[in-house]
Amino acid sequence: xxxxxxxxxxxxxxxxxxxxxxxxxxxxxxxxxxxxxxxxxxxxxxxxxxxxxxxxxxxxxxxxxxxxxxxxxxxxxxxxxxxxxxxxxxxxxxxxxxxxxxxxxxxxxxxxxxxxxxxxxxxxxxxxxxxxxxxxxxxxxxxxxxxxxxxxxxxxxxxxxxxxxxxxxxxxxx
Length: 174
What we know:
With about 170 residues, this protein is α+β, with helices and mostly antiparallel strands. It has helices at about 5-45, 70-75, and strands spanning about 50-55, 60-65, 80, 90-95, 115-120, 125-135, 150-160, 160-170. It is elongated, with a radius of gyration of 21 Å.
C-alpha cells in the first residue's frame, strides 16, 4: 500500500512539531518543576539552606515564607498558597495583620501603587511594583488562581470585617 505524498508531508510536519517543539518544552517544564521539588526535598533533609522570603521596604517588612495558609504556618511565617506559582505565574501569599504573635501584614494597608515588593526564592530575586489595591469578599478565590502573567498577590483580613480581604497585587518589573 502506498501513502500519498501530501499525507507523508503532513505526518512529517506533525512528527517534527512533536519532537522539536512540544517535547523540549515539556521536558523543560518538567525539569523546572523537578528543581522546585528537589529544593523542597533537600530542605526537609537539611542538605541545603533554602531562602524564601518577602521584603517590602516601604513598611520595613522582611519575612520568611513557608508553604501553606493553615494556622500553624501563618502563626510563624508568611504563607504561600500551594496552588499558586512559586517563581512564575501568580505568586500568592497571605499573613495575619493583627491579633496574633506574628502580624507580618499589619502595615500592608499603607502600600500605594508603585511601591516595591521583593520576592526571593533561593538565588532568584524578583521585584514587583504594586499596581492593584482592592478589598474583596472572602469567597473571591480567582485572585489566587495561577496565571500566565507574572505577578504577586498579597492577601490579609480587613479589620472587623471577617467576610472581606485586603488584596494587593504587584506586577513583575523586568
